[in-house]
Amino acid sequence: MPGGEGAVSYVDARDVAAAAVEVLATEGHEGAVYTLTGPAALPHGELAEQLAAVAGRPVDYTAVAPEAALAGMFDAGWDPWRAEGMVELYGLYAAGYASAVSSDVEKLTGRPARSFAEFATDHAAVFGG
């Protein structure tokens, strides 16, 4: 993917759900804006290492040029809108636009956001580990 060395603060879907429940089930959130992130921004190479640790096999991330990524997606049969959108998204990652970290998950749920390592461990069976 064309994510370069940009770090991303991926948030676990379970944390998004828990935060949504809190906002929808309690008072005082009218007009509030929350930024839900994981507890750390990690480059994709480190994410691959964490997946490899639970999968029990090598997982590599290779940053490629946007044109090469787009060609690969087209070769794999992706629709143009989807492939172009993915390349655009990863361009934002490469530029560092997804590296902000917020404490809003903890503020809303009362517990820290799950780390990517926790996510990977919890879903190890899916990754082959």
Task: Describe what is shown at a glance.
The chain is mostly helical and 129 residues long.
Strand order of the largest sheet: 1-2
CATH hierarchy class name = Alpha Beta
Low-confidence spans: pLDDT under 50, at least 5 residues? Answer: none
Mean pLDDT: 96
Q: What count of structural domains?
A: 1
The secondary structure category is: mainly alpha
**Gyration radius, to the nearest Å?**
17 Å
What is the N-to-C order of secondary-structure elements (H for helix, E for strand)?
A: EHEHHHHHH
Strand content: under 5%
Q: What is the CATH topology descriptor?
A: Rossmann fold
Largest sheet: 2 strands, antiparallel
> In which range does the helix fraction lie?
40-55%
Name of the CATH homologous superfamily: NAD(P)-binding Rossmann-like Domain
| Total strands | 2
Number of helices: 7
Give structural notes.
The protein has 129 residues and is mainly alpha-helical. The chain has one domain (7-127): NAD(P)-binding Rossmann-like Domain (Rossmann fold), CATH 3.40.50. The protein is 52% helix and 3% strand. The protein has 7 helices and 2 strands, in the order βαβαααααα. The protein has helices at 13-25, 44-55, 66-75, 80-94, 104-109, 116-122, 124-127, and strands at 7-8, 42-43. A two-stranded antiparallel sheet has the order 1-2. Helix 3 runs antiparallel to helix 4. The radius of gyration is 17 Å and the shape is globular. The mean pLDDT is 96.
